[in-house]
Amino acid sequence: MSYKSLNLVLLALALALALGWLLTFYRLVPRSGNPTLAREPRATNSAAAQRDSEPGGMWRLGVKLEVPDLDIPAVQCAVFAEDPQNQLREKLRKTAWADRSVLWDLLFRSVTGDEVYLLGANPNVSMGLASNAPGGKKWLVTKIARKGETNYCWSIPFTTAPGQDVTIQLTTQNALRLEDVRIE
Questions:
Q1: Is 10 part of a structural domain of the chain?
Q2: DSSP string, 76-135
Q3: Which of 9, 99, 120, 172 is the most buried (most CB within 10 A)?
Q4: What b-and-e string marks burial along 38-75, b requiring 16 or more CB atoms within 10 Å of the CB?
Q5: pTM
Q6: Is residue 108 part of a domain?
Q7: Residue 107's domain is classified under what CATH number?
């Protein structure tokens, strides 16, 4: 294969990828209003469409990270159905390993990729999510974030109900100190 035909193949591949990205972007971004908000997907069956169209069918969570100058540009977080501190205590009972920050991040092994969210470290940016999962007590949990020599992580309990909006601000004051988690 000559260089000219190889360049044509690479150009065709690049155009196909760009076209795919453009079509995906066009479908996700509304044609009017705020261009940074994606349109909600439409339900495909009538029962789901009826549930999603009802105002009490889902709960929403808004999160803002207000810790400037973190060493990383974004913090990974997830919504847990159980208290992660209990899971950390269980891991600490089973091992003599003293690095709690590594044990804390291992709690995210059970979280699938589509359930992990990124919080920007810019205090002017917030993250929102909506779910039609059952309401009740939940925990917003982050992986470890560093600022200099200090490790920050959060485990913020909140209660949800269908149709409810919950807002959480993550600050240095409500950060979890892993050293303070006691084995009972």
A1: no
A2: EEEEESS-HHHHHHHHHHH-----HHHHHHHGGGGS-GGG-EEEES-TT-EEEEEE-S--
A3: 120
A4: eeeeeeeeeeeeeeeeeeeebbebebbbebeebeeebb
A5: 0.67
A6: yes
A7: 2.60.40
Tokens matching residue 27: 């479908």
pLDDT in tens, the chain (184 residues): 665 665 666 656 555 555 554 444 444 434 433 333 333 333 334 444 444 445 557 999 999 998 888 888 889 999 999 999 888 888 888 887 668 888 889 889 888 888 999 998 877 788 999 998 888 999 999 999 988 888 889 999 999 999 999 999 999 999 998 888 877 6
Residue 24 within any structural domain of the chain = no
Q: What's the first-to-final CA gap in the chain, in angstroms?
A: 68
Query: Residue 145 is encoded by which pair of tokens?
Result: 């974030």
**Is the dihedral angle over the CA atoms 8, 9, 10, 15 positive or is it negative?**
positive
| Domain membership of residue 64 as a residue range | 58-180
Three-state SS at 4: helix
The two tokens of residue 28 are 């996700």
Query: What total of structural domains would you count in the chain?
Result: 1
CA 140 – CA 163 distance, rounded (Å): 18
Angle of CA points 78, 178, 104, to nearest 5°:
40
Residue type, 80: F
For the four alpha carbons of 71, 116, 106 and 152, in that order, the dihedral sign comes to: positive
